[in-house]
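During the reporting period the student researcher (J.K.) took over the structure-prediction task from the postdoctoral fellow and processed the backlog of single-chain submissions. One of the processed entries is reproduced below for the supervisory committee.
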Amino acid sequence: MRAKPFILTAILVLVSTVAGQGAPWRPHLVPNNLRDTITVQIVRHCSPAIVSITAKRLVMRQINPFGNMFWGPIGIGPVVAVPADFLGSGFIIQKDGYMVTNNHVVDQARSISVTLSDGRKFSAHLVGNDPEADLAILKIDAKQTFPTIPLGDSKDLMIGEPAIAVGNPFGYSQSVSSGIVSAIHREIHEPNNPIPLKNLIQTDAAINPGNSGGPLLNAYGQVIGINTAIRGNAQNIGFAIGVNRLCELIPKLMNPAHVNNVNISLRLTAIRTMTGAAHVHEKVVVAGTKTPAVIAIDGQPTPTLVDAYAALLKITPAMKTVRVRFADGVTRQYPVSRIPPSPVVLKAEKIMGAMLEQLTPALAWKYQLGVQSSLLVREITPHSVAANAGLRPGDVLVQLGPYPLHTLHNLGVLLPLLPHAGEVRAVVVRNNRPYRKYLRFP
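J.K. obtained the following structure tokens:
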């Protein structure tokens, strides 16, 4: 087992001797100090950008009717929703605090907190997620800069090359394990995910519950994968999502249209090339065009695609246009507008007089609501059907007639029937208590 640091060291001898001034950080040999290995240096350098995540969500528990303790599998007693903490890991990829984790770590989270290696704690919010790919982008809620980890390349991994996993297994934050890339192109099926995860990296670096979302690093301190799963009945068989899959999904995960309801007539992609063992060159370009590289958006440098989309997420509809500077010195302006509400929302406002929004766990936590789904009432039109029924902003509409409302799609199916229904019973949650209201249509 002690031979692994020497293997890591040998791989980097040539690179450490030719790295020039201004080159990316690289671990190096330390003369007369066999303890300060490449692994030690990588962990020391990368740890400030690796975080522990605590996601709070509601779970259903059966309680003891004769006391306050949770009941075992006896089958009696009421079932209630109680808050529970779920642990995971993540890593920061952009200086403003954008970070990566697994979707299953933060799925249905009412609140998210992250702890840095120096002990500082911050709240964070979900920016975008892809359940099928099991990836999510979070943003730390702080206006300051953070250390980052560079993204490597996972398309040319070598079986047997060194791999380092850092994360929060079982709540033991900043835990490090090392091993090798055991295999590539693996496929696994995860619980609650009907789509199998494909093209995974298999590693024997120890990965345990709580490591999910943390980085799998190569011998240059670059992220090559996002730790995501383990084989529970085996030892030292873990899996990571290749970092190239993350790079492909950045435009979706950080899409201003989904995050801020801002439409920007600009789609970006990255051309990533690799020279040598670990020099990843990234060029941001306008998707589907032959324009030169994008080097700044509204004055913010865009060396990577993540930086470019972080800049786009600062754009508001009030700006009307966004300025994009290209490598040839040309600056172009692209129009900006607000995305209108969905047809279902507009139709509900017209028929009922209520402006509705899909309720999410994060919104439920923000407004201290006792439900995590259904439809949040944002505005009520005076003298409308909803106003006459006594609905108020802040109510959560959970049912129309006998039909529960979990999503706007559920509402869209019912809306055409309402004007002909005469009177419809609605159930709303207000101050965490259910109330019956009656919508009367002329």
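The committee noted the following: The radius of gyration is 25 Å.
J.K. will present the remaining backlog at the next meeting.
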